[in-house]
Amino acid sequence: MNRFIFLNCLAVLGCFWIYMLDMGRIYYFFCAVLYLTIISIGVCNLRSNIFMDCKPQHRLSQKIALTIDDGPDVNFTIPLLCLLKKHGIHATFFLVGKESEKYPDLVKKIAQDGHSIAFHGYSHSPWSNFYLACDWEKEFQKAESILGIYLKKKWFRPPFALISPHLAYVLEKLQYTLVSFHIRALDFGNRRIHRLSERLLKKLSPGGVVMIHGSVQANAYQKEKILAEFDTFFQKIKTSGYEILTLENYLELDSKSLDKSRNVL
């Protein structure tokens, strides 16, 4: 919350100077627009670091980490796990607490297959970005009671990749790491499935954290099409010379890269 409070203090100070210098109402308008623009960037762009720092900070050359949001999904998780096993890929699943509560066997299967499990909210509500700090604390309490034994690292990715000052406060209080991504697969809802792998590969250079969805709102035909696109994507990652890392290894290398850049400065 400290960064948000600091931003509010700057806004109040700006308005105070406008008043003291009698600069006119138009400057209040400019001040308000600037304030709302900064807040909007902070909410919509996790990597802006406006409310809190997120990881990773860098796109590492020729290195990829695969993360999978949502789920577990009773119709999609098992075939996706089979696909990952086929290509020898270990991913990090950012799971929804409510779905994990319904399908504990799928959560167990994800962990048994050697994948990491992280937290993606309990309810995954479209209104979650309007939650107060007390609401987020309840979400974390519920999720930890379900996923706690699987959370080797306290990683969190917010629903819809949106953050608020209240969420940032709770994450810092509970010592969670905010995890973002560089490459986003628009593979959810009514997004186009056709040539999905091709579009992802175009975004891949120079490397980075990839986010796909592990839950689909689709019929059986669309599900098979998505799996086929993922199959092609995973195969082409390897043939293109990229090294596929676990998220933990990627973040470790990212931290070392950040330390080196600081030492140079």
Explain this structure.
The model has no long low-confidence stretch (mean pLDDT 90). By secondary structure, this protein is α/β, with parallel strands linked by helices. The protein is globular. It folds into two domains: 2-44, no CATH class; 58-264, Alpha-Beta Barrel (TIM Barrel), CATH 3.20.20. Helices cover 52% and strands 12% of the residues. The protein has ten helices and nine strands.
How are the SSEs ordered, and which strands pair?
Elements: H1 2-20, H2 25-44, E1 54-55, E2 63-69, H3 77-87, E3 92-95, H4 97-102, H5 104-112, E4 116-119, H6 133-147, E5 155-156, H7 165-174, E6 177-179, E7 183-184, H8 196-204, E8 208-213, H9 220-239, E9 243-245, H10 247-264
Summary of the model, kept short:
By secondary structure, the chain is α/β, with parallel strands linked by helices.
Keywords, please?
single chain, 265 residues, TIM Barrel, six-stranded parallel beta sheet, three-stranded parallel beta sheet, 10 helices, globular
Poorly predicted regions are none
What structural class do helix, strand and pairing data support?
A: alpha/beta
Outline = globular
The helicity comes to: 40-55%
Biggest pleated sheet? 6 strands, parallel
Highest CATH level, the class of the largest domain = Alpha Beta
CATH superfamily of the largest domain: Glycoside hydrolase/deacetylase
CATH architecture of the largest domain: Alpha-Beta Barrel
Arithmetic mean pLDDT: 90
Task: Give the total of domains.
Answer: 2
> How many strand segments?
9
Figure out the total of helices. Answer: 10
- How do the helices and strands follow one another from N- to C-terminus? HHEEHEHHEHEHEEHEHEH
Distance between the termini: 28 Å
What gyration radius follows from the Cα positions, in whole Å? 20 Å
Task: Indicate the CATH topology of the largest domain.
Answer: TIM Barrel
The proportion of residues in beta strands is 5-15%
